Amino acid sequence: MKYCLKTIGCTLLFFLTTVLLYAQNQVYSPQQTRTLIEVNTPAAQDSDHVLAITGCRLIDGLGGTPVEDAVVIIKGNRIVDAGPGNEINIPANAEYFDAEGKTVMPGLIDAHFHNLMNNDRINQYLRNGITTMRDPGQPIRFHQSLHFADQPVPRVFLTDSHLDGYPPVWTQQANVVRSAEHARESVYEYVRNGATGVKIYFNLPLEYFETVTDAASLSGVPVMAHLELVDADDAILAGVEGIEHVTSFGTALAETGEAKKFKDALREDYGARRTERFRLWSTIDLESERVKDVIQLAIENDAIMVPTLGVFERYEGDDGVENYHVQGYYNMVKFVGMAYTAGMKISVGSHAGLIHADYGWDFQHEMELLAKAGMDPMDIIVNSTLGNAKYLRTEERLGSIKSRMLADLIIVDGNPVEDIRVMRNVSKVMLNGIWVDSGE
Ligand SMILES: [Zn+2]
Prior knowledge:
The chain has helices at residues 2-23, 119-127, 180-192, 209-219, 232-237, 250-253, 256-268, 273-283, 289-300, 309-312, 323-342, 362-372, 377-384, 386-391, and strands at 50-58, 67-75, 78-84, 95-98, 102-106, 108-110, 130-135, 155-158, 162-164, 174-176, 198-200, 223-225, 242-244, 304-306, 345-346, 409-413, 426-431, 434-435. By secondary structure, the chain is of the alpha/beta class. It folds into 2 domains: 50-107 and 402-435, Urease, subunit C, domain 1; 108-391, Alpha-Beta Barrel (TIM Barrel), CATH 3.20.20.140.
């Protein structure tokens, strides 16, 4: 009996310890994800400050029907409650913010944004609703200005220098991989230095991909790739999660001869990709089995496409645009729509600096292009918030409006589910529980 009790006691103790360690994220297998954090934690609201946002339409990022006449309670930098007004208790000490006729939703997360030591620029994007961004593929030193910001800026997630082959495409941004060992050690070093993802660039030979994805998986960070010379299906099979730019799918979708012609032209001159990708896409037969197979493979492997359609947007009458540009872009849009309908994960990333977008509004512009590709506005919103929080491995803190989440949210005038263009009417932005100065 005594022995039996001891055994039960020990088992219980072991069980509790395991649960506690898991809860604290101290134990995780490579398959498990851990919460990753930004390199620049923003200032937080005082922990005893209570705010009630009342009378709003609530889009919580989880994808359900918007809640009308909702209330959101924020204490310090955390959301403590959110839901229908008649079900939420407003604490006696709460300060009120009346948001009647407006929509409250999670702050937008841009999964693909490049910046070069320009705090003013990303402050503008924050004021336009982007509370979190990831720069895939630029060195951490390109973001040193973050530590000197005297104005609020979004939470920034970094990957450090992208991994490329020799000769590299961008000499200032590349880490040129010379062996599998070097690739592996680079990933570990990046993560030690604060990287929360790893980016593969298009001249990295396929033979190194699995080394990179294995090392990243062991470190709990995702791998994303910009492809031109390696096919997307091969990259996905090697464990790449994020296929950045719709164009990265081009060589996998095109007829073999056309893909070869494209790769030959690029090996001759990397710059040729800027025109040749449109020529390649103009030849793609979207009804082919090949296209269906690639979409299916991406879905089965949980791959994410970040189309960045705005980078490739070309219309008749644009400067220097020829027929094949227009047809190529048309096919890219159509492919995104097909992939979405089939069930592929689509992420929203702006890249920033788009030809057809107004300064500071690239992300909203991309949301509008995805709507034109056939995506439902609610899905675009979810993928811009919780979806991207998952892609950034930070959904336990960011991306939705519910109890315990960090108070990063925006208020827009109107209902974006009825018209995605409403996303430009950002009237208030909150970062870590603090209203961001609109600068007006
Ligand atoms: Zn990019």
